[in-house]
Design brief:
about 70% helix, elongated, mainly alpha
Length: about 90
């Protein structure tokens, strides 16, 4: 994701709190229910539509958690890149 895209998403999410573990568990359960639900017997699948709407209404915290995790990864990569390598610390040529 580009810095511009990340900034736009951050602005759109506003002060949304990150998803809790229990919300992620509920999403996983909904995905399983949708996957295992018999889709062949109904013309309109209200069960899966309701689950999709439930998840859609709660997606902002999931996006916040993902965005926060990606920011942390970037920070840690930067910190790691700024450290001298172990070979350099030992004085090994290579």
């Amino acid at each position: 994701m580009s810095p511009e895209q990340r900034a736009a998403l951050t602005e759109q999410l506003g002060n949304t709190s990150p998803a809790t573990d229990s919300l992620l568990d509920a999403f996983a359960e909904s995905i399983t229910n949708m996957r295992e639900h018999d889709h062949s017997t109904q013309r309109e699948d209200w069960h899966c539509l309701n689950l999709a709407a439930y998840m859609g209404e709660r997606m902002a915290p999931v996006l916040r958690r993902l965005l926060d995790a990606e920011a942390e990864v970037e920070l840690l990569r930067g910190e790691l890149a700024s450290r001298p390598s172990r070979a350099a610390e030992r004085g090994d040529a290579g």
